[in-house]
């Protein structure tokens, strides 16, 4: 497959180079897209390797998922994704308003929801979901004590949190109290840079979050939103599933991300992209929820299946040599496999040709096609496939 690389300000100039041996990049590379989404569709290299064809033409349809490799050097935007109903309504509304699909102020690029799964390849830090009220309130009090002067805005936010009203807290930070929230964020940035937050004994993880967000986005009200969200640090192989309405932001790291084939993002801060606070507030779930870990299921040594509660996709990770020197599977729906470490050989049943995948390279697997991956070294691949039609393994 030939996959587009998206460049965003929060991306990395070195991550893909270090992981995949690619040439260094002068610009920040953020995402590798694998799928048929019109925003950046993949192509497939044909047998003679002298020609390519769009993946959607090979499929004669659309993939229900979009697979990505995501590399973040700086914090991503505070964001949430819509439900299916909200996505359809928003898409139709913006179409009726005559907003071009490519317009910067467009929220809904398609009529689909965007549940997503992220699995860490490197150490990966994220903010997601609202914290227990008591924990957030305690840290806001400590932050108030750490600053050198009184900030009424911080007291307003604390009152909303102590009243167990994240809906009001979020509205105040991002809309009605945004100037005051920005002033507090600027003060926190100065305190973080001066080492004041560390000196007063604040939680080290929160200090690190504030250092990262204020360094990238000084005086952004979204910094205060970050204090309300759970900080989760994933080790390689650990995953998070983010359904519609879960407020989140990624801070740093490289991961495999798979989602329903959508590019609908509602942003509220920590970004130079389009922000639509009213639309974000309409889709966010402003309540304390369990941490959204996605624990994989092991079917055999070296094979892990991530099975989020959605129709569009599941994700399988295969580690060699733990899975043996070869692994055969038969996806019952179209699938995409990407090599993330080492080198693997892919061969379809009754085919004498072998395709060699280096790290960072991917292959499309047609529905019902039996394929064997083999290697004589340590290697790793991820395979995304429609959840409703799991791969049959023939180890």
UniProtKB/TrEMBL annotation:
Alphabetical UniProt keywords: Isomerase, Metal-binding, Zinc
Gene3D superfamilies in UniProt: Jelly Rolls, Phosphomannose Isomerase, domain 2
Classification via CDD domains: cupin_PMI_type_I_N
Chemical reaction(s) catalysed: D-mannose 6-phosphate = D-fructose 6-phosphate
Molecular function (Gene Ontology), one example: isomerase activity
Superkingdom of source: Bacteria
Domain Phosphomannose isomerase type I catalytic: start-end pairs: 3-132
InterPro entries xrefs: Man6P_Isoase-1, Mannose-6-P_Isomerase, PMI_typeI_cat, RmlC-like_jellyroll, RmlC_Cupin_sf
Zinc is among the record's keywords: yes
Names of the cofactor(s): Zn(2+)
Enzyme Commission code: 5.3.1.8
Protein family per UniProt: Belongs to the mannose-6-phosphate isomerase type 1 family.
Protein name: mannose-6-phosphate isomerase
Protein's organism: Nesterenkonia rhizosphaerae
